Amino acid sequence: MPQPTTPDVSAEPQLRVAEPRDAAELAEVIHAAFGARPPLDPPSTAGNETADSVLAALAAGGGVVAEIGDRIAGVVLIGTARPGVAHWRRVSVHPDFWRHGIGTELVAAAEELAAEQGHHRVELVARREVASLVGFWQRRGYTVEPDDPDQPWYVHLAKSLPTAVWIPTTERMRELGRSLADVLAPGDLVVANGDLGAGKTTLTQGIGEGLGISETVISPTFVLSRVHRSTTGRPTLVHVDAYRLSGPDELEDLDLDATLAEAVTVVEWGAGVAEPMAEDRLHIDILRSEDGGNSRLVLVRGVGPRWAEVDLAQIVRAATPATEGQ
To answer: Cβ distance 128 to 144 under 8 Å?
Structure first.
C-alpha cells in the first residue's frame, strides 16, 4: 500500500478557481480542517459535507483553492447572503499546511473573485469560543457585526469588497484615471499596486490629465517623487514610486507630509509602505489577465470615512462599458 507523501510546505501555493472535479478532494480538506479543531458545542456541521454538497456549492457560487504540489491545501467556498453580498463558507486549510500563511492568501483570492462576480460586501460567521479565529478575521480588515440572538455561539463579521472592472486597453486605463480625478480632492492619497508594466503609471497619467496637468507624467522610479502642478486650479499631483523603498520610514524621508494636505498624492508600489500616511486612502490594485493579454482586472477600494459616501462603483464602471470588459 503506498505511503502518504510528506507535503512540501516550503513550496509556494498556487491559487485558482475551484473546479467541479475538485469536489471530492475539497470535502476531504474540509473534514480534515474542521476535524482538527477543538470540540464545539453545538458541533460544527462541516463533517456533513460530501462531494455532492461541495459540488452544489461550487455550482451556486464558486470557490477558490490553494494547491501545493499535487495536493489541495485549502479552500474557500463562496455563497450569496443576498444580492451583492457574498458569504464565506467552509474556509479550510488542511492541518498539514497550517501556520504557513495559506489562509491569508486564500482569503485575498476569494475577495478578488467575489468582487469580480459583482459582490460589494462579504459576510461570515466564526465560532465565538475560537478567539484566535475571530482575531484572524479582524486582522484582515473584517469588523464585528451585531449578534444574532438566535445563534449566540457565532460572531458575525463583514468587510467591504473593492469594485472590480476589466480594463481592456491603455486608453481605457487613462479614462479610468480621468474619471477618478473628478472626485479626488486636496489631501487624498491613492495607493496603486500591480506588477511591472501592469498600468500603474498609465492610470496616474489619466489622473494627471483629469487634474489639469499639462506636462507629461512619467514614472519617478529614479527620483522617487515628482510634483506636477495643475493649470486649471485643481490640486497638485505628487507622484511617488515606492518600489525601492523598504518601508514607511524611508517614505517619511521624502517629506511628503509637507504637501499631503494640499495635493493629490499617488504612491505606486505603495502597499505595506504608504498606509501610515493617511487614515483615508484609495487603494487601486491592477492585475494582469491570466491569458497574457492586454486586459487588466482593476480593483478599487476606498478606506476610511472620506470614501464612505463616494459611489466608487458607479465611477469605476462608467470608465469602461460592460461590453468592453472581459
So the answer is: no
